[in-house]
Amino acid sequence: MGPLITEFGFVLLLILPWFPSVIAEEPKPASPACDFPAIFNFGDSNSDTGCMSSAFYPAILPYGQTFFHDAAGRASDGRLIIDFIAEKLGFPYLSAYIDSIGTSYRHGANFGAGSSTIRRQNRTYFDGGSPFTLEIQTAQFVQFKARTAKFFNQEKENPYTVNFPRPEEFAKAIYTFDIGQNDIALGMGHQDSQALISDMLENFLKQIKILYEQGARVFWIHNTGPIGCLPLSMPKHNANNNTPVQTFKWSLHFWPRKENTVENQKENDIAVSGSVDENGCVIYANNIAKDFNSKLKDGVLKLRAQYPDASLTYVDMFSAKYELISNSKREGFVDPSEICCGYHEDGYHVNCGNKAMIKGKEIYAGSCKDPSKYISWDGVHYTEAANRWIANRILNGSLSDPPLPITHSCKRTP
Taking 90 as the threshold, does the pLDDT of residue 390 lie above it? Predict the structure, then answer.
């Protein structure tokens, strides 16, 4: 059997009431808020706002049904965390860099792409991979910046400039990052975890340095989330798999499950069952994420010392997501293992929005009635309701180092 879960074919990861019990009061810094003119985002399906949907096959409903009322290139029923960041900073939602139809980049661009990794891949799109690794996303930004400058340096006024940031605004913009889960999922069971983490960190910090050399000075860096808590990583949903791999594609990789032979059984037991915590999350997977996060924070602190004229904020996304998962029922959600959209029964899996013949019957994998009650949208990505909850939790700075809200994240700290 091939990989149990590979990349979703087209991409790639509700309005929720205010929850005062979990939203810490936002600090009130004495200094004024940062005047960011633009956002430039780098990431995977957790922040892709249309890259993979524009580059390959378009997203389909019920993706996007809650807020956009149409498939909007996002791996959710509605808005992503990057959308709430844009709202918080007073910007329109970010356009995907590769989206050529009716696009404005006046206030930034989104280079994030579903299925993407920090490291280079050996997979094509049709194998569940993405050509848009962090290295390529950075290269796209460098080209975007250079070509934008040409518009403004021409003797004659160029009508295209209205849709692009001014050259001087690149240095004043905020650069956001949310990437790494796919690397961990792809690497588990294939590579020593310490070697994996070391390679991830080296490649990540290299791209940060390139962006710094390009003039970037404000970095908002999410650590990676609790991959072992994604429902389709839990034994409840993947202990058995009857779905051929070529028809079962997701936008976030997980460890492979090999042919059920005596020789492979031990590895399968570790990869799929493993030890689970009180929330049903796979401890082995989460521990790798925690280890990477710890070393990522150390790396960010070193960069902070190396670049004293830059502001680098490390954001504990893992804690925010795990807090929601641990308190799901108290916060008005169903059990965090439940999946809103898709068909996952008796070892059969049908992607959200798709149809399949199972035991002679056509199954349509539609949405649940009320996505706002679910944390997981499709087993891998979060619902808009969950994304909103998490965004409220992190944007006030209470889970950041330094502890400043995103609106003040341009402030340098020793």
Answer: yes
